[in-house]
Specification:
Number of helices: 15
Helix content: over 70%
Structural class: mainly alpha
CATH architecture: Up-down Bundle
Number of domains: 1
Shape: globular
Length: 412
C-alpha cells in the first residue's frame, strides 16, 4: 500500500468515552433534536411500508417504493453536497426540515380522510428523497465542526444512534399506533417531531461557514468528481458502502412482507421487528471506539461487512420470530459499525472545504444503493419468496467483503 495512503490514514487517539462528543453544546443540541425527529421518521417509515403492503399485497411494490426514493438520491446527492459546501448548512437544514414536516402533514391528511392511494405515497416519497439529498450531506458534514477531530468517529456513531437508536421505540410505537388508529396517526406524529430538529437548530450557537472564493456551481461539482478520482482510497470506502447498501440493507424495506409471508405476524409485531436493529446500533456505539483503536477503521469496515453479510444470509432462512429478533439486533450492530467507520474514513480523509460533496457521494451510495437494491430483491421475492431473495444478497455481500478486506485493513 502506498505511503501516501498510510499517511492519510494515520491513527487518531480515541476519546475516553464514546459519549464524549455530547460535552459540546452544539453537538448535544443537534443530537437531541435528531432523536426526536428520527423517532417520528421511523414511525412514518413503518407506516409507509405497512400501507404499501396493505394496498398492494406485493413485495414488488415495496421495491418500487424504494426505487422511487432511490432515483432522486442518485441524481441529486452530489448537488446537495455541493450546496452544503457553498451555503450555510444550518439554514439549509432548516429549509429541508420545514419541507419534510409539510409533506408528513399532507400524508396525514390523505390517510386520515381515507383518500390515500399508492400513487400519492410514491410521489411524496420521491419528493422527500429529493429534499433529503440536500439534508443528509449538510447534516453529516456539519459534525466535524461541532467536535474535536479525535471525536469524529464517536460523533458519527452517536448520530447513527440518534437515527437507528430512535428505531428502537419509533417502530414499536408506530406499529401499535397503526393497529389502534391506522397509518395516519404515525404521519401526524412525524410531522410534529420535526419541531425537535428545528428547535435545536434555532438554539445552536455556531459561527457562519467561513467565506471562501466561489467559482461556478459546475466547477464545484467537477472538483468533487476530481477529488474522488485523485484519492482512490475514498473510492474504496464508498465502494464498500455501496456493496453493503445494495446487497445487504434491503432487508429493512422488505420487513413488512417478511413479517406477513414468513413469520405470519401483524402490525404490532412488525414494529418490534423494525425496532430490533436499533438496539444493535446502540451496542455499536459502545464498541466502535475500542474496536477501531485495536484494529483500525478499515479493518473494522471490512470485517463488519463480512459478518453482516453472513447474518443477512441466515436471516433469510429463518422462520421463527424470536430468532429473527436476535439476528436483527446483530445485523443492526454490524451494519452500524461498518457505516460509522466508512463515514469517518471518508470525512477524515477529505479536505474540510469539500466534505459536503464527499458526503453527497456517501449519501448517494448509502441510501441510493439501499433503495435501488430493494427493487431486485422485491422482484425476486415475488418469484422465489422474500426470504431466499434476502439470503442471495447476503451471499454476494460476503464474497465482496472477502475481496475488499485485504485492501481496507491498511487504513487506520
Amino acid at each position: 500500500m502506498p505511503d501516501k495512503a498510510a499517511a492519510l490514514s494515520a491513527p487518531l487517539t480515541p476519546p475516553a468515552s464514546p459519549w464524549a462528543p455530547l460535552r459540546h453544546r452544539n453537538f448535544r443540541l443537534l443530537w437531541t433534536g435528531l432523536i426526536v425527529s428520527n423517532t417520528g421518521s421511523w414511525m412514518q417509515f413503518v407506516a409507509l411500508g405497512y400501507l404499501v403492503d396493505r394496498l398492494t399485497q406485493s413485495p414488488l411494490y415495496l421495491g418500487i417504493l424504494a426505487a422511487t426514493q432511490a432515483v432522486p438520491r442518485l441524481l441529486f446527492s452530489l448537488l446537495g453536497g455541493t450546496m452544503a459546501d457553498r451555503i450555510d448548512r444550518r439554514r439549509l437544514l432548516v429549509a429541508t426540515n420545514l419541507f419534510l414536516m409539510t409533506t408528513a402533514t399532507l400524508l396525514a391528511v390523505l390517510a386520515l380522510t381515507g383518500r390515500i392511494r399508492i400513487w400519492h405515497v410514491l410521489i411524496i416519497a420521491g419528493l422527500n428523497s429529493l429534499v433529503q439529498s440536500f439534508d443528509m450531506p449538510a447534516r453529516h458534514s456539519m459534525v466535524p465542526s461541532l467536535v474535536e477531530e479525535r471525536e469524529v468517529l464517536h460523533a458519527i456513531s452517536l448520530n447513527s444512534v440518534a437515527f437507528n437508536g430512535a428505531g428502537i421505540f419509533g417502530p414499536s410505537i408506530g406499529g401499535a399506533l397503526i393497529a389502534a388508529v391506522g397509518e395516519g396517526g404515525c404521519f401526524v406524529v412525524n410531522a410534529a417531531s420535526y419541531l425537535g430538529t428545528l428547535s435545536a437548530l434555532a438554539m445552536m450557537d455556531v459561527p457562519r461557514q467561513e467565506a471562501v472564493v466561489r467559482v461556478r456551481l459546475s466547477e464545484d461539482l467537477r472538483e468533487g468528481v476530481r477529488l474522488l478520482r485523485q484519492h482512490r482510497h475514498l473510492l474504496l470506502f464508498l465502494t464498500a458502502v455501496a456493496a453493503l447498501s445494495f446487497f445487504g440493507r434491503p432487508y429493512v424495506r422488505m420487513l413488512p412482507t417478511f413479517a406477513r409471508e414468513v413469520l405470519h405476524v401483524g402490525a404490532t409485531s412488525l414494529g418490534v421487528l423494525q425496532s430490533a436493529p436499533g438496539v444493535g446500533t446502540i451496542l455499536s456505539a459502545l464498541l466502535v471506539g475500542h474496536i477501531s483503536a485495536a484494529r483500525g477503521k478499515g479493518a473494522l469496515l471490512g470485517v463488519a461487512m463480512l459478518v453482516f453479510g453472513l447474518l443477512v444470509t441466515l436471516f433469510g432462512l429463518v422462520r421463527a420470530f424470536p430468532l429473527s429478533l436476535v439476528l436483527l439486533v446483530l445485523m443492526g450492530t454490524t451494519q452500524a459499525l461498518a457505516l460509522a467507520s466508512a463515514n469517518a474514513l471518508v470525512q477524515l480523509n477529505t479536505p474540510p472545504h469539500a466534505r459536503g460533496r464527499m458526503m453527497g457521494f456517501y449519501s448517494m451510495v448509502a441510501f441510493g444503493g439501499f433503495a435501488v437494491g430493494s427493487l431486485p430483491v422485491g422482484a425476486m421475492g415475488d418469484v422465489l419468496g422474500v426470504g431466499p431473495a434476502l439470503s442471495a444478497g447476503g451471499v454476494i455481500l460476503v464474497g465482496i467483503a472477502v475481496f475488499l478486506i485485504p485492501k481496507l485493513r491498511a487504513y487506520q
